[in-house]
Amino acid sequence: MSRKQAKEGGGAGRSLAAAFNNNTKGGAMIMKSVSIFLASGRRASAQSRDQAGNGPNGSAHQPRADTHAKDQNAVTGRTAISRDNRRILARMDELNGKLNPKMLEMYKRRTHFSKVEVEALCKIYRKLVANASMNSKALAASNPGVIAKAGSSMDGIDRSVFRELLHSTFDIVTEETLMERIFCAWEKGYEGLPIRLEGWLMGLSTFLKGSQAEKTAFCFRVYDLNSDGFITKDEMFALLRNCLIKQPQDEDPDEGVKDLVEIALRKLDMDKDGKISFQDYQEAIAEEPLLLEAFGQCLPSDRATMSFLSTLQA
Where in the numbering of this chain does the EF-hand domain appear (predicted)? Predict the structure, then answer.
């Protein structure tokens, strides 16, 4: 191609197109060059026209107001994206146990904990979740057939971690059914799901420092196995059956459990309809607080509570 052809946009385009037709092996690369060359020629022509029309006495093709509006829209769009990103990052921080000052103050108001205690509990939460994630990855590494759950560090505290915490930290040693119920009743509305930071803090507030009314509501949720608002004879039987030590000489071990169910009904069924409603339970506990954990331990001992709370002040 001559220098003269290189200066003439149309001639150069036709020459490159002809080369493309005559050399199919390099067709793709040459066609790309054609597109770039012709596009640059069009941009140069458009710029020349704009300069001619936007001189000292010329009129612009696009009013400045439109350009300013577009700039403002772009800024507004970036601001909205920035806000969304901040909300997402804040949510991620919350799930991982990190709190900004506003969230810290909010949880202080919503729980019975001080700011120092909330911060300490967030650190414990992060550690528990991190350890669970590491254990999951180690399990997957040692068992090729097991796939580590993606993003497990964001899932919260699962059953296995929670149960170990109840045993080792809060001295709750009870049978499997009751342990499962404590986990499910921990965070109202999220039964059976991993415990998130908010549920962790709110649940511990009741668990460790709750009022009589809060602890009564929690224990009732634990004992109401099917969450229908009543503790029935069958549910009482299921809860008490594993609490008794069966003796080999007993002809019918379940007879003792049935006797306990009848005793519990006499104490807790205030309206005598054969089942315990939440109102029945509230009234009975108000009269006799020792009946709060009548169907099995689901709250920490005073010694375990004091020991755990003391670690939060360190």
Answer: 211-246, 256-291
The answer to whether 158 and 200 are in contact (CB under 8 A) is no
Contact, 231 vs 220, CB < 8 A? Answer: yes
Per-residue confidence (pLDDT) for residue 263, from 0 to 100: 94
Contacts by 271-275, CB closer than 8 A, 24 or more apart? 274/233, 275/230, 275/231, 275/232, 275/233
23: left (phi over 0), alpha (psi -120 to 50) or beta: beta
Contact between 95 and 122 (Cβ < 8 Å): no
d(CA 215, CA 185): 12
Provide the sign of the torsion angle of the four alpha carbons 165, 168, 172, 175, taken in this order. positive
Q: Please tell me the predicted confidence (pLDDT) of residue 105.
A: 93
Per this entry, what is the length of the chain? 314
**Helix (H, G, I), strand (E, B), or coil: what is residue 277?**
strand
CA atoms within 13 A on the CB side of 43: 6
**Residue 277, beta-bridge partner list:** 230
**Torsion 27-33-36-41 (CA) sign:** negative
Burial zone of 240 (CB within 10 Å; 0-12 exposed, 13-18 middle, 19+ buried)? buried
Residue 68 in 3-state DSSP? helix
Give CA separation, 56 vs 50, 51, 53, 62, in Å.
Answer: 12, 10, 9, 15
pLDDT-flagged residues of the chain (< 50): 1-39, 41-42, 44-45, 52-63, 89, 146-154
> What does the pLDDT read at residue 242?
75
Which pLDDT belongs to residue 78?
54
Per-residue confidence (pLDDT) for residue 221, from 0 to 100: 96
User: Domains along the chain?
Assistant: 85-142+155-210+299-313 (no CATH), 212-298 (1.10.238.10)
Please give the model's pTM, rounded to 2 decimal places.
Answer: 0.65
